[in-house]
Structure formats: structure tokens, C-alpha cells
């Protein structure tokens, strides 16, 4: 336990989700569920899809936690960073009419980064920029199964978030700090649907376009002089599909496809410079012994934003994991992923390798049949 | 557990390489500005030296310093006084011959100067109003100096005079402990016929300094102590926007030492709180120095610099409430032993203000 605590402390002290996070709105955070992360993270198959609650029998609560260790290389430089943070809570409650009430909190964008400028002569200004923050979503939705084969869902999403960038300057022994704070606010809807045919499940969700308001404050050189500015960021729709097939010979296959047509994204009615991108994943779950599945997945895709040089940020990942039954409680899913990112920059490629460990603990309400004893 | 310490070192200490730095869309603009004074001037002033750490007595071809002492003498049993001795304790070993005279005008420790007896009264004669007769003469020696005062002038000294003034009669300077030193401060001892003695400790003391033959031009920029020379400088900072961060603002110049009586010269920069153009030498300034420095002028090209980053930052950030009226460079404190340095008006050795600045960082959405 001491070792785990120390590791958590180290990772918590250093925050950097990606060295590409200064771009755009940062890294897209996918719905967090260790079971599906181990299968390549097909978003449409996760609890983040309000239409994906066909089989819900009892109240279920899932809490996910992710720890990230990251190394990145640019030229001959290499850095290692890490972070531990909760990634999502999903709760689903079945109502008497078979309607499901959905409540969740998850992350949409991550803006953590930590970069240093090159250390040159003593007279040069050296920068250290530390950013922490992101955009999170508070979700309230309903899901309605139909004929045991269809499920439709809708979710209201209140996006709220903020980031704090501390710009530290060093020059000839002098230290100064400017701070940029950005608050985010938006409301949007997510529509989801699932159809099941024999052993085949087809599911998907659609994120409506929405307007994100970003309010920026600047705190300059420690004196109370704030510069306030508002940005209106228009983000187009996102479409996610998922296909699950099985089980065949104790094996289940899951695939996912995400389409993010964000070329038309704007910031204050000016093109944001984002791109149309997709992300695809495939995963396999093999369960030799009941309750102890082995999962393996692969995903590939690109970031919606580009590097400063206009280069693409490509990402591929290998996913793996397993799950455990927790008697009288629920399940514990464990997933690991190794993510390889690469992006062309003015100073050459940045190659980033991130290792993530996800834990999702799921509580499932137990219903016991009461035995009636006559005479009491 | 044994791996965690090196792992922590790896993650914390060795982890400042510039990976991903170029992903920042645009870096804050930074630059260096070297400004020459937009306006400058110099003035001299007799400043009160009553709060100096010592009393300076002496003279040479350029400066003269006199010492004023005040004792709470009592007008009783003067007839039985057989002798009066003034006891002084020099700090320096330089022998300085001096004469003691009775002061004829009241003066105050905190305000007395070569020209003023106190803040509202001018001496009738610059350098102090004194009776012409001598109370006694002596030469300062290393340990202590005892001056036998003229017994016949005792009544006048007690009843009519306002203390004793020590006037140097030979060249050389020596410092004397002042009344703040309870053991070695100046004291006056009355010896009585019955063998008793009465000791009076100084209740007021000061030294006053004047220049004798300084050949300075009106256009000279001088900084000096004892007889104060102050240089006014003003730099225009209009080119810097209010949101700029001043990383370093350094005022530097290479003064030429004209005269000094100590190894280390201490200078200070004060912010003017009133317009020098309007108030001239009477323009107010902040008593607390914005920056100080001490240097030993071992060579003529010793550069002196002041870090006035905070001052410049305030001038730039709050141009309406923190007005830039300019700077005053003074000796700090001005009761140091006499010195005088000269600043160039132009060239490499002239005062200049080097500012290293950085503009605010852009946010991730700025274009």
C-alpha cells in the first residue's frame, strides 16, 4: 500500500496528459469504462451512450480512475510525466416503466500540460508553462428499451470546465509569473440508440453541435490587472458507432468508429483550423473461465487539431485488460493502454508514448427474494 | 521501495527538457530596451547631519566640517569650579587640531546645517554663530582627547552660550563618537575646589559641513555626501504598454570619483513624488530608497547599477496613480563621510536604464 501511495503522490504532483495539449481544446477524453477501454474504447458501447442501456436490470454505479505515465521524445530530448485522476462516474437507475434514469459525470477535454523552454544562456528568458484543467460534462438523461431489441436514449449535458495556465519566466535570476485562466460553459444534447439482432448489437450516439463559451482572465506579473475576453467556440456534431458481436466460442468482438467533422468549427466566427477526423477501434474479449475475461484491443485515429506546424497528430493504441467479480458488490475492471502519438512540429516530430492504467469499479444493486415465514 | 527515490528524481529533477515547447501557438514577445535619460539635472544642498553615526571634525582644501555640542549645564556653584574639561573619543587616528568656541545661537540636532541653526533660523554667519574668543584648543589623538577649557569663560559658557563648537584649525579629518555612545560620548567635566567633580553628558550634537572650493560646472551631474549633491534623472517609458511584465530594470552608470574620504561609497535611488520641472530642487521624493548599492571605486571605470525592477513595473502598470516624475540619485545616507562622484551626460559611462520585458502570453484561442 505504501508503494502505491507513493506512486500516486508522484503522479499527482506532475501533471501532463499530453505534450500536444496546448493545441486546440486539448485531448479529447473518451467515455471512461475500463472494460471497453481494454477493447479499444469504442465510445458507443460505453455507459456514455444514453441509448446503450438495453440490459439494465438493477441500479448500477460505475466509478473510473485513470493513472497515466507518459514519456515523450523530441529530437534528443525526452521527458516523463504522470497524472492520476478520476475520469468518470456513471449511474443508471431502472424505473418501473422500464425507463432508465441516467446520471453521470465525465471528462470531455483534457488541457493538462507541462512544458519547458530550452535552457540556453543565462541571459535568455526561460519559460515553464504548467496548465491544469479541462472540460467536464454533467449529464442527465433517460433511456427507454423497446421490445427487448431496441433502446433509445437522450441526455442533457451541461459542460463546465476551466483551465489555469501558469507562465513562469526566468531571466537572469528574476522570476515572474503570468496566469491565464479560462472558464468554459456550454449546454448540449446527446442522442443514442441501440439495436440487437441475435448475437449482434449495433449502437451509436450523436452529439449535437453546440456553442462553447470560453471566458478568459489574465493575471499579469502578480499585480491585480485582469484582462477579460470572451470567446464563442462553435463545435460541430460528433457521430459514434459501435458494433458488438458474440459470444462465439466464449469470444466477443467489439468495434467502434467515431466521426468528428470539425472542419467547420469556429472561434468567434473565424475558422478554428480544426480538421475532419475519425477514430476506429477493434477489441476482443475472451472468457475461458466465467467471470475472468481477457480483453485485447487496438485503436487508431487522429486528433481534430493540428500541431503548430499544421502537422497531423496521429494516435494509435494497444489496449488490454481483465475483470474481476466482486461478490455481493459488482465488478472491478482493469484496463491498460499504451498510446503512441506522433505529430510534426517545427522542431521535428514529437513522439509520445503514454501508458495508462484504468480502474473501473462497478456497483450493482442486489435484489434478494424474501422468504415469508407464516405465523410471524 | 528502493526504486522509488531514483524514480522520483527522474520525474522531478531531470524532467525539464524542452519537449513540446514549440507546441505553444505563440510565445509572449520579449525584448530589451536601453533608455537614456530624457531629462537630467543636479543640485547641491546643505543637509542636516545631526543623526549621523559619528561627528566629523576636520578640513582640507575642499571641505570643512565643524562639530556642535550641547550640554545641560547648571548655573550653580560656578565660583567653586576649578577646572573644566571637555572629553572626546576619536574613532580615527588622524590627528586634527581644533579650537573650541562658544556658540551664540540656539541650534537643534535634527535640523542644524552650515546655513541653518534649526529648521526656521538661519545663522547670522554661515558656519555657525560663535563668540570669537577661544575656550580651548587641542589635537584629537587616538584614545581620548581632553580639552582644558578656559575657566574664565565659564559663566558665559553656562549662562549665555548655546553649546560648544569645535572648529578645525589644521587639515585632516577625524570622526568622534557622538552622544549615542553612552560610555564614550562627549562629556564635560567640572572640577570643584572640594575635590568633587560633576560630569555633563551631551544632550545634543551635530556636525555641519561646507564646501570650500569645489570647481564644478553648472552642467555637472554630481552625487555627494555630507554636503549633498543629488542628480535627477527621468526616463520616458511611454513605449512600454501597461500590461508588460518587467523582468529586470537596471539603472547603471560609471561614475568618476572626484573626492572621497571613505573606501566604500553608498548610493541610492529615490522615486520623485513631485514634478521636478515644477518644483525643481524642492520636488518631494520618497524617503525610502527604491534601490541602494555600495561600491568600492578601485578603478575609474567601476560601474554602478541599481535594480529598480519593481519601481519601473509600477510606473508602467499604473501610469495614472504611480506617476513617473523621475529619479533622484543620492548618497545613502547623506551623512556619510564626504565624497563626490561625477556622472557623464553622454557616452558609454552615462546613466542608462536597461529594461528586459515580456508581453503577456497569448491564450490558446487568440489569433
Automatic annotation (TrEMBL), chain A:
Residues 1-18 form the signal peptide. Gene3D superfamilies: Outer membrane protein transport protein (OMPP1/FadL/TodX). The keyword Signal applies. Keywords: Signal. This is Bacterial surface antigen (D15) domain-containing protein. It comes from candidate division WOR-3 bacterium.
From TrEMBL, chain B:
Gene3D superfamilies: 2.60.120.970. NCBIfam families: DNRLRE_dom. This is DNRLRE domain-containing protein. The lineage of its organism: Bacteria, Bacteria division WOR-3.
Amino acid at each position: 500500500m505504501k508503494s502505491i501511495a507513493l506512486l500516486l503522490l508522484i503522479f499527482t504532483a506532475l501533471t501532463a496528459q499530453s505534450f500536444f495539449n496546448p493545441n486546440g481544446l486539448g485531448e479529447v477524453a473518451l467515455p471512461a469504462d475500463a472494460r471497453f477501454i481494454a477493447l479499444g474504447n469504442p465510445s458507443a458501447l460505453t455507459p456514455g451512450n444514453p441509448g446503450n442501456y438495453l440490459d439494465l436490470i438493477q441500479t448500477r454505479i460505475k466509478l473510473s480512475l485513470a493513472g497515466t505515465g507518459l514519456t515523450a521524445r523530441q529530437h534528443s530530448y525526452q521527458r516523463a510525466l504522470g497524472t492520476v485522476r478520476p475520469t468518470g462516474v456513471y449511474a443508471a437507475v431502472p424505473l418501473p416503466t422500464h425507463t432508465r434514469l441516467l446520471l453521470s459525470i465525465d471528462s470531455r477535454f483534457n488541457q493538462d500540460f507541462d512544458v519547458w523552454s530550452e535552457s540556453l544562456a543565462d541571459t535568455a528568458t526561460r519559460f515553464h508553462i504548467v496548465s491544469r484543467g479541462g472540460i467536464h460534462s454533467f449529464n442527465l438523461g433517460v433511456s427507454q428499451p423497446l421490445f427487448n431489441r431496441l433502446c433509445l436514449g437522450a441526455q442533457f449535458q451541461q459542460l463546465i470546465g476551466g483551465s489555469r495556465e501558469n507562465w513562469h519566466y526566468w531571466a537572469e535570476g528574476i522570476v515572474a509569473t503570468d496566469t491565464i485562466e479560462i472558464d468554459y460553459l456550454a449546454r448540449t444534447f446527446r442522442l443514442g440508440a441501440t439495436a440487437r439482432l441475435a448475437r449482434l448489437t449495433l449502437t451509436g450516439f450523436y452529439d449535437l453541435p453546440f456553442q462553447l463559451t470560453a471566458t478568459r482572465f489574465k493575471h499579469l506579473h502578480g499585480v491585480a490587472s485582469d484582462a477579460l475576453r470572451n470567446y464563442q467556440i462553435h463545435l460541430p456534431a460528433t457521430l459514434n458507432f459501435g458494433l458488438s458481436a458474440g459470444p462465439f466460442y466464449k469470444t466477443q468482438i467489439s468495434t467502434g468508429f467515431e466521426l468528428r467533422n470539425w472542419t467547420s468549427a469556429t472561434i468567434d466566427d473565424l475558422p478554428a483550423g480544426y480538421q475532419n477526423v475519425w477514430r476506429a477501434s477493434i477489441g476482443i474479449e475472451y472468457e475461458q473461465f466465467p467471470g475472468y475475461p481477457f480483453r485485447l484491443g487496438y485503436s487508431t485515429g487522429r486528433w481534430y487539431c493540428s500541431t503548430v506546424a499544421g502537422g497531423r497528430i496521429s494516435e494509435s493504441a494497444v489496449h488490454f485488460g481483465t475483470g474481476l467479480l466482486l461478490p455481493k458488490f459488482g465488478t472491478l475492471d482493469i484496463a491498460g493502454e499504451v498510446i503512441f502519438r506522433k505529430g510534426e512540429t517545427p522542431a521535428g516530430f514529437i513522439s509520445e508514448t503514454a501508458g495508462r492504467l484504468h480502474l473501473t469499479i462497478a456497483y450493482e444493486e442486489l435484489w434478494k427474494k424474501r422468504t415469508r415465514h407464516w405465523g410471524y | 521501495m528502493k526504486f522509488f527515490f531514483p524514480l522520483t528524481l527522474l520525474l522531478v529533477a531531470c524532467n525539464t527538457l524542452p519537449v513540446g515547447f514549440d507546441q505553444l501557438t505563440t510565445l509572449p514577445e520579449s525584448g530589451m530596451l536601453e533608455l537614456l535619460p530624457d531629462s537630467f539635472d543636479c543640485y547641491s544642498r546643505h543637509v542636516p547631519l545631526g543623526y549621523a553615526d559619528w561627528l566629523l571634525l576636520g578640513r582640507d582644501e575642499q571641505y570643512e566640517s565643524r562639530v556642535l555640542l550641547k550640554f545641560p549645564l547648571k548655573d550653580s556653584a560656578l565660583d567653586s569650579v576649578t577646572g573644566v574639561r571637555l572629553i572626546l573619543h576619536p574613532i580615527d587616528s588622524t590627528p586634527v587640531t581644533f579650537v573650541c568656541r562658544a556658540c551664540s545661537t540656539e541650534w537643534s540636532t535634527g535640523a542644524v546645517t552650515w546655513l541653518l541653526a534649526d529648521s526656521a533660523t538661519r545663522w547670522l554667519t554661515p558656519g555657525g554663530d560663535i563668540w570669537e574668543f577661544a575656550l580651548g584648543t587641542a589635537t584629537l589623538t587616538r584614545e581620548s582627547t581632553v580639552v582644558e577649557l578656559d575657566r574664565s569663560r565659564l559663566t558665559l559658557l553656562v549662562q549665555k552660550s548655546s553649546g560648544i563648537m569645535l572648529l578645525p584649525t589644521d587639515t585632516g579629518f577625524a570622526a568622534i563618537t557622538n552622544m549615542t555612545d553612552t560610555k564614550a560620548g562627549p562629556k564635560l567635566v567640572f572640577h570643584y575646589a572640594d575635590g568633587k567633580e560633576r560630569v555633563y553628558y551631551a544632550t545634543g550634537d551635530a556636525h555641519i559641513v561646507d564646501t570650500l572650493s569645489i570647481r564644478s560646472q553648472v552642467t555637472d551631474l554630481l552625487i555627494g555626501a555630507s554636503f549633498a549633491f543629488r542628480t535627477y534623472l527621468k526616463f520616458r517609458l511611454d513605449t512600454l504598454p501597461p500590461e508588460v511584465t518587467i523582468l529586470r530594470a537596471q539603472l547603471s552608470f560609471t561614475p568618476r570619483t572626484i573626492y572621497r574620504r571613505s573606501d566604500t561609497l553608498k548610493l541610492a535611488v529615490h522615486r520623485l513624488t513631485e514634478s521636478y520641472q515644477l518644483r525643481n530642487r524642492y520636488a518631494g521624493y520618497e524617503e525610502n530608497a527604491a534601490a541602494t548599492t555600495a561600491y568600492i571605486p578601485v578603478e575609474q571605470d567601476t560601474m554602478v547599477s541599481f535594480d529598480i525592477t519593481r519601481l519601473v513595473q509600477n510606473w508602467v502598470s499604473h501610469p495614472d496613480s504611480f506617476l513617473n516624475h523621475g529619479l533622484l540619485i543620492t548618497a545613502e545616507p547623506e551623512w556619510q563621510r564626504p565624497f563626490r562622484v561625477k556622472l557623464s551626460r553622454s557616452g558609454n559611462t552615462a546613466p542608462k536604464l536597461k529594461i528586459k520585458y515580456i508581453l503577456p502570453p497569448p491564450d490558446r484561442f487568440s489569433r
